[in-house]
Design goal:
- The complex is a heterodimer of chains A (412) and B (524).
- Chain A is α+β, with helices and mostly antiparallel strands and 412 residues long.
- Chain A folds into three domains: 146 residues, 2-Layer Sandwich (Gyrase A, domain 2), CATH 3.30.1360; 81 residues, Alpha-Beta Plaits (2-Layer Sandwich), CATH 3.30.70; 121 residues, Beta Barrel (Elongation Factor Tu (Ef-tu), domain 3).
- Chain A has ten helices and 19 strands.
- Chain A starts with 11 loop residues before the first helix and ends in a 7-residue tail after the last helix.
- Helices cover 35% and strands 19% of the residues of chain B.
- Chain B has a domain of 207 residues: FAD/NAD(P)-binding domain, CATH 3.50.50.
- In chain B, a hairpin with a 2-residue loop joins strand 11 and strand 12.
- The radius of gyration of chain B is 22 Å and the shape is globular.
- The chains are: A alpha+beta (412), B alpha/beta (524).
- The interface between A and B is medium-sized, with 21 and 17 residues.
Chain lengths: 412, 524
């Protein structure tokens, strides 16, 4: 008889502890609310979390960003808490931009590189106090950040799960926050951050975003996520607040000319092929390099590549004739010489232009910027129509909105 | 902080023999050089020191077998007191209960005490070992190949190696490649049968590294040993009169003659870095010295992690430096004896040589085994010299000095060295008593330096005399770390010139010379 008296049925606690495999994609702290709104059931995996491409209608979600207010769950974004007496010096060594010039209560967009000067990731750095920072990024970097902390008096902790994040973006976002009772929100200028009381604790609100529009990002303890969502939704109802998915956000960010790691460039730890690695100068982040600041990772390699003119690529904004998006189209010089690839493209309703981001091989895009073409394959009823369209290198952002930076922010 | 008025062309940190060689070579090229030594005297691990009243000994390195001929020539050491004569070469004696085996001349040109068939097998193996070591020898005096950007000279050098390989002939070349990364144990089994000879070779291959004879790649250690030469003879060895200190004295004299300013008791606290460039140093007493070039001939990890600090270099580089393996596994024993010991069956000439207790390869392997788990060998293997028999001035009249390198003594001993040291000394003395009965009763004073002691006394992290394990993964372009093996560092103006750099440790002067040549070539 196959009788095993010692094997007990699994206890409830044990089952719970081992249930991770039952959830292929984790939920964020906002998942109950998002699931309730996710009529399209159009999910994707964002760093292991179940995130919506679109909840109800991607066109209308996009216009919520530009005409009303859009609520987007950014909890899956990787977040690190970096704290200690040496936090400033540590981050100044790890990241490209001068952290000594980032004042408490401010945020800046930055990037970081490996020894060889190739970009590991880009992200935002929040200075919460003189000695406390939050670094947000697309990819995970804990081993790198911990190894970088050697001989610094600093603690580095991943807080992705502990901190829930929301982006509230769009013209009415300021009014919604004010109406929701976040007193003093009008004082936040672009890239400012402050703490506001919420539900017995506090929420960090920064005037930042990924849309090029007036907007804010809110960070709260995970257990206060739902009450924060409800507070915003209640206050935002009269001002057209809508939850949105990534497709809409992706359009807005392209209009704003912002790049996405592992979409517009391959991060150094993901790249398998050596010619896919990118230095900051090769993806439009050269402005972050400050040779005058203290040492930072990749400094030697980056300055050497500059001095020896070894920069091979160039990330540019393109304006393409016509109205057919040129997504992943090949870029040609004089219609026949392949010089690059479009990484993101759309017809911009705001700019009323056909826009794109593209990586070109220098000198194209750098010193040779005319006579560029893109080859668009437009599928028309099971037949490709090949279009060779003229492309012009144009400055980014493609769309510049005064309301993004207006002080005080306008009451729409 | 005071600032020195003088501005130097080069500051050399560390007055070990490599630091002295680098400083002297740079000074001979017309540079104004200052050398800063932390200790009260220069010489590092190549000093003759008094360890008991009237008893002096070469405290770490005690045999001269690889002083590089380019060093001797470049610094004209023969004009500064270096004497190497064929008559100074000493034999190696493999001690055994079955009676000793003696390797005369340069690493056993003549083998005494073995059967005729073993003698002819040895003749063949010795020739092969020297031939193969000879292929690697040119690498000793060159920068490791720079895989990222090779110069024409480097290409030519590699080309010559390829040519040398080809000149071996097809069979020999194939065999060279076959055995290159082999363990010494299996190779010896292929060709020899006398355990005494095999034990000696197994010991030599693993001397100074954390490897047993059966560990993969252990044969490389023997090649490293045999790539060394003295007086133009590969594999030869001598006990310098006056101890290793006289070799350093000759190098020091050459350095001073060339105009090097030597400052003892001047430990460096920090390398000054400005915008990615090393521009000088601050001493522990607060003095600031500036120079175009800073050469560190001390441990690479100490240099980067302590003197430069991780803030001035990249995370990936710090990772690599932190990962350099350098936990010593060899101890050094100094005995002050009432009278010269008598090793059974060994003649007078043998007593002036190198006496090795490693009766079989299995014995060496068994000695190694416990060290993997943080325990010392219960029956340690060792290399013994009696320097006062070569130079009577090293001991009081009638008395004798014994110097021995003893394995295996893991740096991180599980029980801790304060508890373990007396036990280990007892284990060593028990071995000595077997081969030199009665020696224990004549011991007037014993000094045992464990890797932990060597670490502190000689500023060698881990007590590892190569300043980094000398194994395949930490050799050539991976020494001290991959990507930075050519004596330069990520900091412009900062160079590494110690044993932690290619080719490695031993009294060769090669890292110091190669580093200096690199610096001189860069300016050209």
């Amino acid at each position: 008889m196959n009788h095993h008296p010692t094997i007990k049925p699994p206890s409830h606690a044990r089952t719970l502890a081992q249930s991770h495999f039952r959830t292929l994609r984790l939920g964020t702290p906002f998942q109950p609310r998002i699931d309730a709104l996710g009529f399209k059931q159009d999910w994707y995996s964002w760093a292991g979390y179940r995130a919506p491409h679109s909840l109800w209608d991607e066109e209308l979600e996009y216009f919520a960003i530009r005409s009303q207010a859009a609520l987007f769950d950014i909890s899956p974004m990787t977040k690190y808490r970096i704290e200690g007496p040496d936090a400033e010096a540590y981050l100044d060594r790890v990241t490209l931009r001068d952290v000594t010039r980032l004042k408490p209560g401010r945020v800046h967009y930055t990037a970081w590189c490996a020894d060889d000067g190739f970009v590991l990731d880009d992200g935002t750095l929040f200075r919460l106090s003189p000695t406390r920072f939050r670094l947000c990024s697309q990819e995970r970097h804990l081993p790198w950040l911990l190894d970088s902390a050697f001989q610094y008096d600093v603690g580095v902790e991943e807080e992705t799960e502990a901190v829930a994040g929301l982006a509230l973006q769009g013209p009415t976002s300021f009014a919604i926050l004010r109406d929701a009772g976040f007193a003093g929100i009008e004082r936040l200028k672009v890239f400012d951050l402050a703490e506001f009381p919420h539900d017995g604790t506090s929420v960090t609100i920064s005037r930042t975003g990924f849309t090029g529009d007036l907007g804010y990002e809110l960070f709260a303890p995970a257990d206060k996520a739902l009450s924060l969502w409800d507070r915003l939704m209640a206050a935002g109802e009269p001002r057209g607040i809508r939850a949105i998915g990534y497709t809409a956000l992706n359009r807005a960010r392209l209009e704003a000319g912002l790049i996405v790691a592992n979409a517009d460039f391959t991060t150094s730890e993901h790249a398998i092929r050596t010619d896919r690695l990118r230095m900051p100068d090769e993806i439009g982040l050269g402005f972050m390099i400050d040779p005058e600041k203290g040492h930072f990772n990749g400094r030697r390699a980056i300055l050497e590549a500059r001095a020896k003119k070894r920069l091979r690529h160039m990330l540019v904004g393109l304006e393409i004739e016509g109205n057919i998006p040129a997504e992943h189209a090949i870029v040609y010089y004089r219609r026949n010489q392949e010089v690059g690839l479009v990484s993101a493209a759309m017809w911009s309703p705001m700019a009323k232009r056909n826009i794109a981001l593209a990586s070109l091989q220098r000198p194209y895009g750098d010193t040779i910027a005319d006579d560029l073409w893109v080859e668009i394959y437009a599928m028309r009823e099971l037949q490709y129509q090949k279009l060779m369209k003229r492309a012009k290198v144009v400055p980014r952002p493609f769309v510049k909105l005064d309301r993004r930076t207006a002080n005080p922010p306008a009451d729409f | 902080m005071t600032s020195s008025d003088l501005n130097w062309d080069a500051i050399v940190i560390g007055g070990g023999h490599n630091g002295l060689v680098a400083a002297a070579t740079l000074a001979k090229s017309g540079r104004k050089v200052v050398l800063l030594e932390a200790g009260n005297e220069v010489g590092g691990a190549a000093r003759t020191e008094e360890f008991a009243p009237g008893f002096r000994v070469s405290t770490v390195a005690h045999l001269l077998n690889r002083l590089h001929p380019d060093v001797t020539k470049t610094l004209e050491l023969e004009h500064h007191g270096l004497k190497v004569e064929r008559g100074d070469f000493v034999p190696s004696v493999a001690l055994s209960k079955d009676g000793p085996l003696v390797l005369h001349g340069a690493y056993g040109e003549v083998l005494a005490g073995a059967s005729p068939s073993e003698q002819s097998a040895w003749k063949e193996l010795r020739a092969q070992l020297l031939r193969y070591a000879g292929i690697l020898k040119p690498f000793l005096s060159r920068r490791p190949p720079d895989l990222a950007g090779m110069s024409l000279a480097e290409m030519t050098g590699l080309g010559q190696t390829a040519l040398a390989l080809k000149k071996l002939g097809r069979e020999d070349m194939r065999d060279f490649l076959r055995v290159l990364l082999m363990n010494v144990y299996d190779l010896l089994d292929e060709q020899l049968s006398d355990d005494r000879l095999k034990g000696l070779l197994a010991f030599d291959a693993t001397l100074g590294s954390h490897l047993g004879p059966r560990s993969p790649t252990s044969l490389l250690g023997l090649y490293y040993r045999l790539a060394g030469e003295i007086g133009g003879l590969a594999g030869a060895q001598m006990q310098p009169k006056g101890g290793m200190g006289t070799i350093v004295a000759a190098i020091r004299a050459a350095a001073e003659k060339a105009g090097v300013s030597i400052r003892q008791a001047s430990p460096v606290a920090k390398v000054i870095v400005e915008k990615g460039r090393a521009v000088g140093v601050v001493t522990q007493s607060g003095e600031m010295l500036r120079a175009k070039t800073v050469v560190s001939a001390i441990n690479p990890a100490t240099t980067i992690l302590d003197l430069v600090g991780p803030r001035e270099v990249d995370t990936g580089f710090v990772r690599k430096v932190k990962n350099i393996r350098m936990k010593g596994d060899a101890a050094k024993l100094h005995l002050a004896l009432d009278r010269p010991p008598q090793f059974a069956g060994v003649d007078a000439a043998g007593h002036t040589g190198r006496l090795v207790i490693a009766p079989s390869p299995d014995h060496v392997e068994r000695a190694f085994n416990p060290s993997k788990y943080g325990e010392f060998s219960p029956e340690p293997v060792m290399e013994i010299t009696l320097p006062s028999l070569v130079d009577a001035s090293l001991a009081p009249s009638g008395a004798c000095v014994l110097s021995a390198v003893v394995q295996y003594a893991p740096y991180a001993l599980k029980e801790g060295w304060s508890a373990g040291k007396p036990q280990f000394l007892k284990a060593i003395m028990a071995q000595l008593e077997i081969y030199a009965p009665g020696i224990g009763a004549t011991v007037r004073h014993a000094e045992l330096l464990t890797p932990a002691d060597i670490e502190i006394r000689y500023r060698m992290p881990g007590g590892q005399w190569h300043h980094g394990e000398l194994q395949a993964d930490q050799m050539l372009m991976s020494r001290p770390v991959s990507g930075w093996s050519g004596y330069d560092t990520p900091l412009e103006g900062l160079f590494l010139a110690g044993a932690g750099s290619h080719p490695g440790g031993g009294i060769s002067g090669a890292p110091g010379l190669n580093a200096a040549r690199r610096i001189i070539a860069m300016k050209a």
